[in-house]
Amino acid sequence: MNRIKMLLILITIALIPSLIHLGCGGGDGDGGGQNGETTQINGRISNVVAMTESNDKSIKYSKIMDMLSLIKEAKAQDGIMVTAIIDGVAVDTDTTEPDGSFTLSFLLESAENVTFLFDINGTEVSISILVQEGSIIEIVVAIDLNEPPGDEVEVVDLAEAVGPVRCENGTLEITKEFDEDIIIDGGGEDCIRTAGNCELIIDPEDIVLTNCQRCVDARGTSSVTLQTFDGDIYCDAFKDGFRSRGDAEIIIDAIGNIDILANDNGARADGNSTISFFADACIFDTGEETFDEQGNALIDPEGCGEIIRGPVPTASPFPSPFPSPEPTPEF
Fold it and tell me: Which residues contact 10 (CB under 8 A, 6 or more apart)?
């Protein structure tokens, strides 16, 4: 019994530095400059390997480290503080969800080396990557605390995100090469949602917005421009295809066709907002109205060479079918 009490006391003493570190939060960063383009990091920690004891430690200390390792492994990817640092200044901080996911957003005026600092029970490890201004990237990392200093964090995957796009300030531009498409899967949420004074520009070959609650929901004074080099724009929505509110603006400009499949309205605008279409043909297969204007809002389809209402019997230009939308409760 005395040995157990002594072991618990030693464990408590060993944990004190970590608890002190966690309790002494530093001041928030200034968030970087107010100019630049919104940059978003959708991250996930796929695995955390806890530190094991060194061979030259005493047996008693090894037992303590074993128990500490179990504590760390039990927490795994959950509750890890992740901080983005640029030139020594913290620009955003988040804490991981149980699946290890985190989101960081900040402004960049140009490509910068961004350091990502991971605080695991008081043990800090980091990695730096070059991030382009205005980009939305997805990063998956694995952490092994047994690796030599500087090598504890490994990038498992680094790619442009294909999930929902969010922007609240600054300018965010997503471009592709001439022959590349962009596919954004909303996972049942709005595929694109903007607010504040965000300006979002997406400019690839084809644009495919699928599995969306709304393909685009623009709010505040934000503006969204979807423009193709030489391709089509496809929108698959459980609710409205395109939705604008307040003083927001949406421009859909396809050097090809715009094809909208929506359970509710093809386009809905209220307040002083505007939605404009430009395409060879604008195809609307909707459950309710093609256009729904409220207040002083304007939906302008004059840029459509042809307006087609209802499903088109021709084959889809996309290589694989997308899942049929399922109605979601109104709120």
Answer: 60, 64
What six digits make up the tokens of 196?
A: 């504040």
CA distance 135 to 39: 5
Residue 270, pLDDT above cutoff 60: yes
161 band by pLDDT with thresholds 50, 70 and 90: low
* Predicted pLDDT at 8: 38
Task: Report the alpha-carbon distance of residue 290 to residue 260 in Å, rounded.
Answer: 10
Interatomic CA distance for residues 145 and 189, integer angstroms: 36
Q: How far apart are CA 238 and CA 240, in angstroms?
A: 7
Quote the pLDDT of residue 181.
82
322 touches 210 (CB < 8 A): yes
5-12, long-range: CB < 8 A, 24+ apart: 7/60, 7/63, 7/64, 10/60, 10/64, 11/64, 11/67, 11/68
- Token duo for residue 10: 């030693």
Cα angle 234, 237, 241; round to 5: 75
The amino acid present at 180, given as its one-letter code, is E
Q: What pLDDT score was predicted for residue 324? A: 42
CA atoms within 13 A on the CB side of 233: 28
DSSP H/E element including 132:
none
The Cα 266–Cα 236 span in angstroms is: 10
Q: Tell me the C-alpha distance between 250 and 168, whole Å.
A: 15
Q: Give the Cα separation of 276 and 262 in Å (integer).
A: 17
Q: How many CA atoms within 13 Å lie on the side-chain side of 268?
A: 18
Query: What is the average pLDDT across 127-138?
Result: 81
Judge contact between 218 and 244, C-beta under 8 A: yes
Residues 301/277, Cβ–Cβ less than 8 Å: yes
For 41, residues 6+ apart whose C-beta sits below 8 A from its C-beta are: 84, 103, 104, 105, 114, 116, 131, 137, 139
Six-digit token string for 61 = 């200390």
The C-alpha atoms of residue 8 and residue 125 are separated, in whole angstroms, by 28
Are 266 and 291 in contact, with CB atoms under 8 Å apart?
Answer: yes
Q: CB neighbours (10 Å) of residue 86?
A: 20
